[in-house]
Amino acid sequence: xxxxxxxxxPRGSEVYDAGRVLRVVGYWEDGLSLVDEQTGDTERxxxxxxxxxxxxxxxxxxxxQSGRQGRSNECMRxxxxxxxxxxxxxxxxxxxxxxxxxxxxxASGIKPTEGQLNKAENRKxxxxxxxxxxxxxxxxxxxxxxxxxxxMPRGRSLKKYWQKWNxxxxxxxxxxxxxxxxxxTEARVPHRVRLLMDQASExxxxxxxxxxxxxxxxxxxxxxxxxRKYQIESAELLQVPSATTLAKHIxxxxxxxxxxxxxxxxxxxxNRRASGATDIRALMVGERIEIDEVKLSVITPIxxxxxxxxxxNTHKEKLEEIEEEVRKRLILVVAIDVASRxxxxxxxxxxVGAEATxxxxxxxxxxxxxxxxxxxxxxxxxxxxxxxNIVGDNGSGLRNAVTKAAGSGISRNMxxxxxxxSGDKPYVEAVIGTSESQLIQWLPGYTGRDPNHLTDYDSxxxxxxxxxxxxxxxxxxxxxVYPNQKHHGVGxxxxxxxxxxxxxxxxxxxxxxxxxxxxxxxLGHKIEAKPSAQGVKAYDLPYQAIWxxxxxxxxxxxxDGLIDLREFTSEKVSIYIDPDHLRYATIIxxxxxxxxxxxxxxxxxxxxxxAEYLGVLEEYCRMHPDAEQLAAETMLSAISDMRKxxxxxxxxxxxxxxxxxxxxxxxxxxxxxxxxxxxxxxxIPGCVPPGSICGDxxxxxxxxAGDEPSAQVNGGHYDEHRDDTPDNETFSRPNTKGKLT
Length: 741
Hints:
Blueprint: E1 14-17, E2 20-28, E3 31-36, E4 42-46, H1 47-54, E5 59-62, H2 86-107, H3 114-117, H4 120-133, H5 155-167, H6 191-204, H7 212-232, H8 243-253, H9 256-264, H10 266-273, E6 288-295, H11 307-310, H12 313-321, H13 323-326, E7 331-337, E8 343-349, H14 354-364, H15 369-374, E9 389-392, H16 401-410, E10 413-416, H17 426-438, H18 459-462, H19 467-481, H20 497-507, H21 516-523, E11 525-529, E12 536-538, E13 541-548, E14 573-578, E15 581-588, E16 596-600, H22 610-621, H23 625-653, H24 662-672, H25 700-705
Parallel strand pairs: 6-9, 9-10
Antiparallel strand pairs: 1-2, 1-5, 2-3, 3-4, 6-7, 7-8, 11-14, 12-13, 13-16, 14-15, 15-16
Helix pairs in contact: 2-4, 2-5, 6-7, 7-8, 9-10, 14-16, 16-21
């Protein structure tokens, strides 16, 4: 059998329910009768309803106290000792401990009169008992100096405390003093002036962020206008309060969030003053990733080691002249795993764009051992992980068509965070802020968090960290420092991000990284080229197809395991290369269902990235301008000497030459064309000569007869008296049948 409790609540008890204050006034047959103290309405609650509301978090019940009137007027609004200021809490505890000592005297049969409480033996007993409840008490100040210990009051004060404590039902809230209520309690500023101050406050609570001085000037105008009315009525004139009084009035009448909303706007106030995220948004590594871009507060020069030494003196002088103009702040694009707070990728760029974001995606989905080895890191970075959700913001490099297409190819969702809403992606914001205070602020050339942060520090002159050094420091920080320091964010509980990642990987797992073919297609570089017998070329690197996912195309594999792409198409094919790994490439052929996988045939470059390969080519091709000119002069001088040596040898031996001079070539040409016969050009049957279109057409038979040759070549002799002048009336194709031409 279930027992329904019938709670016995004393009459006069206060009930606080969801912001309402009710008082118990009686009972009825199945519950309680209550009265709302604000509206005066009477309500009836059943015992079941009272039990259900009692379990609510906003419910509170206060039993009536017979001596509640014994409290000081200021303490009447407090319900618990902890609500008092710290100084009054200590005072209440001290006086309650004294009352405990007086209670022990009363229990031993001593009447608590002023004379009895002043006796030395009774005061000693009170002090010993009070010291057990509070702290050791002193009898008098040694040497008349100041002490931090609490002193024993006289019998009159002890009796007063005992009576208050006893009359209030031993409520400690009745014991503290209200010294701050002494003196003149009347308002120094009249009510009418307070109303005018409310009107003047509107000048300060403006989006233009006006100052207190401007609001005070408006108050002076309002008071002046009001005094004109009082002059007519012969009343006392109003005085203008000070600017400090007006500022205090505004801050007391308006909440801090209200002032921020009025002056800065709702979005910015919500972004700055709203509570942070208190939910655990991911449990698996790669389940949710946040990315953001920030302009680093450090000046980076263009002058770099190695390149500066290779410049000529003239170029160095020119670069020194414009050095101040090329110093700038770089942009950091970073991605973290929400579940573990581990950094997954970081990219430095001069200008934000899709290229930097796609490079960040590549770093997330690849192994980062290369950074560990190059920059001498001691800890292991995060391995290649897959991505489920990517959360970004309004950055120009994050919200564009190219980035969306690439992100959708490697993840399930691309989530756009709202502007001025830090709660949408709070974790990456925290990482950026931490790196700003722990690393960037430590570097020379730091610019400060705002324009007025550093007043006597020249960031332009002190900026000596070049981009390579800056990226090395950031890599060391994100691999060795940040993952190994304690994190007190939501769900971290003081653990390090590295330990959290290991725990989650063991218990929840990790999303697999995209396969190489998918990664190259969505995140790689695309080049179009025609296939040849050697395969295809991208960045002057030869690739040969070795495998395909299309079963029908697999029949084209040669005996050596290579695929000739010319058998499938004669047009250009699309080649996708992973800039981080050049050994393999993905080739898509128009008309073929599956992609082809090609391998780099130059084995010397298989283990390099695209940047390293281009750096090697640049190093091979780089030559000092003076050395290049010297090499060209040496080569041309050697060729000239070799040519002279050959000519001398030919003249000495009388060897026929293998070439002709210009005069000899022209003579040979004239001799070659000397025996040519240019035949008579006859008219074309059915056609008219130029200039006689409207004239009569010649007779066809005469035209045919006129085509007979007037002379022939006999025995190879040419008739010099033959007239080869064409007919002035007709122009036709020459009849060269049977003639040598």
